[in-house]
């Protein structure tokens, strides 16, 4: 990402962070939707896997299901138009509407994709949005800020002013009064409309049935009151069978708003059969005389060919937005046409990688909450990382990151940097109760004066570490400390050696390490990542060990998941070596609970502890219960579970350097949950999270200590 693009993104982030009114609206919606969704999803344990299979089959057989749907729809009297481009779709739709005609339109993401409302208005057509949220946006002359709740950014007082002006009278500022006014205002448009435009939640290829689901009833009116009904849908909306389409509709309700089914579900299977052929004049409300289905190709085939097929599994339920920490803080500033990370993929597979970069490609923090909340388990972060690779291959990495990642590939470089930072750092840094703070402001490096950063160690962990000599070990493990432990959190490395020594586990250390490569991977820089990975693979594959343990889950994910991907097309010998090493990867919490019989700690620890789940550990590695089990084995310790323990802390490595204010805003919500527990110690299992929490705690003048689970366990084994 170049300096110019970075400034564009930074300005968007700043605007999003400053718009506190929109933020209030988003969080009001989240407070209602998130609990309902989390309560409803367990009632349908097989729905997500079933839906993913349905969507995968449809995309794997795209040409076949399109042809089948076209035959079925045309057999029901519908007209099907396959639009290769946005221009094709716009021109065809405009040809169906009389000059200065009246169009009533329901909410349609595909309609927004082709910008149909503005296109028609520019040609003298009156377009009236009938979805309440979209109608509010239309009157306010602003864009949607959520796929299901498009006007959550507008306060009710403003909405009252807009509707009062339209109605010509002062309305009561209550939701009930506004809904009544909106219905009255829309009724006249619906009766007089020439054309109704809607989207589609799903199209069943076998029966030629179009499914739309809603909670207001406006889509039903749009689809039956005007004499012409136009449906705009991407070809990915087509599924094989009527039963498959019902699964899509159910999933949209369950995952989108936490309902078992939408309030209204309409199934449109052709033109109205109730029309009286003897009537000369069309009577509104009989059902449409014409139904036109505009199927958008518009880059979908190119997306599949480029490796983004999974993006077409999306059912536009908005669940990913409801759980994305970046969207929560900056709203519609993140995404392009389709909001959030999926919108950035959308922009790129339409051939506009620059639009993707300018609208937040660098903002995904990789927490994977979108993926875990998605009804089709869409791997949006992985697709965004792939787009970053494309950007790096086309434009380069940029000299700053290239310099840093080059340094991280050389084992001899970081110790020199660490010594320089220790020796000369005090010229730019000063002591803080929690670490170091800047004497000067380095905002371009993510280092404002108030930011607390870790102290650099005089010597790296690998230089000072002395693993306990064990005559008859129960297990032999290698330990990969990672950059943070090696150069700033050396005490965490010492704590791990102590805990494993107490449990008669032999530990082997490398004489020198390079970075795990995960910062390069998420930046799209695979060249440096592969260089780092190869060095680590050679070092640790030579160890005679039962497991390779980690205190940093990001490093563990690099070895376990990213290395096999990096070398998936290399020699079979290298692939086998990588696979064997990946199988030995264990987070330390996982190892202590699953692989050995843990020695009971005896030392009483009088602390009240709460626990934060690191994103890579909880979602990528599935390790959640093990840290809690370890904490609760410690005598004297009181454990308190915090609300939303698995939400992101906002660190994200280099993300917190590039977008520090956003990173801290995400962290604030987490710290509030910590404070609510009244814990004296915040425990976690990630050195990066520890660094970020210490900074946030210092900024907010909180008193909690921050410790890795292993440090607390080490204290319970008597280490001071």
UniProtKB/TrEMBL annotation:
Spell out the InterPro entries in the cross-references: 4Fe4S_Fe-S-bd (IPR017896), 4Fe4S_Fe_S_CS (IPR017900), Cys_rich_dom (IPR004017), FTHF_cligase-like_sf (IPR024185), Helical_ferredxn (IPR009051), LUD_dom (IPR003741), LutB/LldF (IPR004452), NagB/RpiA_transferase-like (IPR037171)
- Highest taxon in the source lineage: Bacteria
Which Pfam families does this entry report, sorted A to Z?
CCG (PF02754), Fer4_8 (PF13183), LUD_dom (PF02589)
Q: What does the UniProt keyword field contain?
A: 4Fe-4S, Electron transport, Iron, Iron-sulfur, Metal-binding, Repeat, Transport
Q: Which PROSITE patterns match?
A: 4FE4S_FER_1 (PS00198), 4FE4S_FER_2 (PS51379)
Q: Does the keyword Transport apply?
A: yes
Domain called 4Fe-4S ferredoxin-type: residue spans:
304-334, 354-384
Among the GO molecular function terms of this UniProt record, one is: oxidoreductase activity
Q: Which GO terms describe its biological process?
A: lactate metabolic process
Protein name from the UniProt record: 4Fe-4S dicluster domain-containing protein
Which species does this protein come from?
Desulfosporosinus fructosivorans
